[in-house]
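Notes from the 1:1 (GR / supervisor)

We went over the backlog. Supervisor wanted to see one worked example end to end before approving the batch request, so GR pasted a single chain during the call. The sequence is below; no edits were made to it. Supervisor asked that the structure be written out right there so they could see what the output format looks like.
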Amino acid sequence: MSETASFPFIDKTYQDAMELLTDARNFVAHQRSSSNDNIGTLDSLFITLETSRLVSHLTNVMTWIMWHKAANNGEISSGEAQKNGEMHLDKDIFAKRQDVFDIDLPKVLEKLIGRSHLLHDRVSRLSQMVH
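Structure output shown during the call:
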């Protein structure tokens, strides 16, 4: 743990990620509790798929952030944080969805997905700045 660095912007990014995770959790809870009888099976499957992708994106971004919070706290080196966190920013993980089906996602989900992509872009830029 010889090489440590402090990056104050990690805390702000962490707060933003937690807010987005909370909003995503609230969306999922609302989707489960609301009656979706008027949504077809294919639409429901696609919404579930995109919600799962959203949670996966957020989990990967949060993992990168947590590695760098550990480096900020002196628990690990910044090099170790970068090495361990980098795989969670792989562009293949964050590939844009394929619009194979002509299905409109709920506006709230669309906004959450958009916010997750903005967060990923910010974390990718931070990753480049760190190393």
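Supervisor's comment: The two ends are 17 Å apart (CA to CA).
Batch request approved.
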